[in-house]
Amino acid sequence: FAMSHLEILGVFTPGQRALVKGWWKKVTAAHPSARNFKDMRVPTVEKGVFGILLVESIKYAHSSISYIDDVTETQCFGVIPTIIAKCGSFLKEEAMTTEGIFRISGSARRTRMLQSIFDTPETYGSQLDWRGYTVHDAANIMKRFLNFLPEPVITLEYYRVFKDTTLAECSNLDFKIEAVQEIIQKLPIAHQYLLLYLLDMISMFVTAREYTRMDISCLSAVFAPSILSHPDDEKNPAKYFESQKVLKFLIENQDRFSMPSAHNTCATKPSLVSQKTAGSYSGSGIESIVADAEESLPTTSTLRRSKTAPSRRDKYGSHEPHQTVRVNRASSQRKLK
After folding, report:
1. What Å distances lie between residue 240 and 103, 150, 158, CA to CA?
2. Which is the most buried residue in 47, 114, 117, 179, by most CB within 10 A?
3. Best CA proximity match to 269, nearest among 74, 70, 54
4. What SUPFAM superfamilies has UniProt attached to this entry (predicted)?
5. In the chain, helix, strand, coil percent, each to 5?
6. Given a cut of 70, is residue 172 above it in pLDDT?
7. What domains are there in the chain, each with its CATH number?
8. How far is Cα 84 from Cα 261, in angstroms, rounded to an integer?
9. What's the rounded Cα separation, in Å, for the pair 74 and 16?
10. Is 308 exposed, middle or buried (0-12, 13-18, 19+ CB in 10 A)?
11. pLDDT digits over 180-237, tens only?
């Protein structure tokens, strides 16, 4: 079928159109028998990010998050997928008062376009200009990326023990938090960073439920399939509701869980950052920094949002400085002042 079916929008430059056409050529080559885009379901392409294991795609499509290790009071760095960083910062700045965010669908055409951009080397959408797209488009593509992951954010290996631990009757909340934290620390490190970033973002939207009409139950229902699910239970409604209950617990207590600890060997520069990524939005706790390459990830400090209002600046300029997503603990920020 022809490239015209992708319906390239008028806001794209000739260079961007060429980029998308190159991506589309790879997709159709990988699915020669598909009659249309829907038949492809997960149109994976070489060096893409959709339908690719997180531990693989994070190596070449990532943005940095920084946080403070409260044991050493040292700034540490981790990485999350570029698509999550871009969509997360955009949504936190522009969608906090949007009714039905994460529930109302965006444009299918624009979502396909976003997938092509985030799936294409070398920038993987890091320099995306959000003009022409809505917050619902951004929420759609974020959910699509998460739903297309071969394994959920909480990997299948720890699905059962995570549920059993979280749903177990326990009168001591501190004890349960500690037990859950121990399981989180067993996840692949890329999954730890992504999980804690998502919990922080979702909790922000929970606080905006008066405007969005999306309370913690609604948001848990949206994100449970991509964060905590198992193919053996996909047709069991009771198991799905269990996953929602677990996710609600994680969101309610997200500020008590910890990022990977440096154990006195914390990196002082962004880790595993082989490319500098540019962002278009400065959301809560997000600041401009230049990402320098480092060889290893930090190998736990609590993730909390900055309570300060996001800075406002020209969001669509072509010469915006490189930036990474920065998430700091409120307590740690006070220490740095």
Report:
1. 17, 18, 16
2. 114
3. 74
4. GTPase activation domain, GAP
5. 45, 5, 50
6. yes
7. 3-40 (no CATH), 54-336 (1.10.555.10)
8. 22
9. 40
10. exposed
11. 999 999 999 999 999 999 999 999 999 999 999 999 999 999 999 999 999 999 889 9
**What does the radius of gyration of the chain's CA atoms come to, in whole angstroms?**
19
Q: Which long-range contacts (CB under 8 A, 24 or more apart) does 21-24 make?
A: 22/120, 23/116, 23/117, 23/119, 23/120, 24/116
Q: How many residues would you count in the chain?
A: 337
Neighbouring residues of 148: CB distance < 8 A, sequence distance ≥ 6: 42, 50, 51
For 67, the 3-state DSSP assignment is: strand
Q: What is the pLDDT of residue 58?
A: 97
Band of pLDDT at residue 297, cut at 50, 70 and 90: very low
Q: What is the DSSP string of 163-199?
A: HHHHHS--S-HHHHHHHHHHHHTTS-HHHHHHHHHHH
The identity of residue 316, as a single letter, is: Y
DSSP 97: T
The pTM of this model reads 0.73
Nearest to 47 by CA among 62, 60, 38: 60
What would the pLDDT profile of 14-49 be if each residue is shown by its tens digit?
A: 655 565 565 556 555 555 554 544 444 555 667 899
Side chain identity, residue 311: S
Spatial neighbors of 249 by CB under 8 A, at least 6 apart, are: 166
- Is residue 20 packed enough to be buried (19+ CB in 10 Å), middle (13-18) or exposed (0-12)? buried
Q: How many CB atoms lie within 10 A of CB 166?
A: 22
Residues 6+ apart with CB under 8 A from 112: 6, 37
Q: Of 118, 116, 78, which is closest to residue 324 (Cα–Cα)?
A: 78
